[in-house]
C-alpha cells in the first residue's frame, strides 16, 4: 500500500493537475499515485472540495460502532465458553476440542479458553 495523503495534499495534487502545466501521467509519477486515484480525487474535489477528499473509511464513529460490536461479540463468546465448561464433562469437552481443531484453531488457543 502506498503513502496516505491528507485532504490538503490531495487538494494540492488535484489543483496542480487542473493547472495543466504538466501531464496527468507526469503529475501522478511525481506524487506516486495512479491516474485512477488522481481522477477519483479530482471528481470528489469538484463535487465537494477538500471535505470530500477525507478518507471516510477511518471515520471515528464507524470505529466506535465496530469496537462496540466486537466487545459484544467477545462477551457472547466468553459466555458460550463458560456454558460449555459447566455443561460438559472432560470427555465431551475433548470431543469439542477436536472439532475446533479441525476448523483451524490451534491446541494452544483451544486450551487457553477451554482448559486442558
Plain-language structure description:
With 116 residues, this protein is mainly alpha-helical. It folds into 2 domains: 52 residues; 55 residues. The chain contains 6 helices and no strands. It is elongated, with a radius of gyration of 25 Å. It starts with 6 loop residues before the first helix and ends with a helix.
Give the topology.
Elements lengths: L6 H13 L4 H8 L3 H14 L11 H28 L2 H13 L4 H8 L2
Helix pairs in contact: 1-3, 5-6
In short:
The protein is 72% helix and 0% strand. By secondary structure, the chain is an all-alpha fold.
Estimated helix fraction: over 70%
What's the β-strand tally?
0
What structural class should be given to the helix and strand makeup?
mainly alpha
Radius of gyration: 25 Å
Kindly report the average pLDDT value.
83
Topology as a string of helices (H) and strands (E): HHHHHH
- Helix tally equals 6
Task: List low-confidence stretches.
Answer: none
* Oligomer category: single chain
Distance between the termini: 42 Å
> How many structural domains?
2
Features:
single chain, 116 residues, mainly alpha, 2 domains, 6 helices, 0% strand
Amino acid at each position: 500500500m502506498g503513502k496516505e495523503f491528507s485532504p490538503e495534499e490531495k487538494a494540492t495534487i488535484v489543483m496542480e493537475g487542473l493547472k495543466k502545466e504538466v501531464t496527468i501521467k507526469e503529475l501522478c509519477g511525481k506524487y506516486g499515485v495512479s491516474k485512477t486515484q488522481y481522477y477519483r480525487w479530482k471528481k470528489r474535489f469538484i463535487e465537494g472540495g477538500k471535505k470530500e477528499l477525507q478518507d471516510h473509511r477511518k471515520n471515528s464513529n464507524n470505529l466506535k460502532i465496530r469496537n462496540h460490536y466486537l466487545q459484544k461479540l467477545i462477551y457472547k463468546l466468553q459466555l458460550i465458553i463458560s456454558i460449555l465448561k459447566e455443561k460438559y464433562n472432560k470427555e465431551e469437552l475433548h470431543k469439542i476440542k477436536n472439532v475446533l481443531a479441525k476448523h483451524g484453531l490451534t491446541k494452544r488457543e483451544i486450551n487457553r479458553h477451554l482448559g486442558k
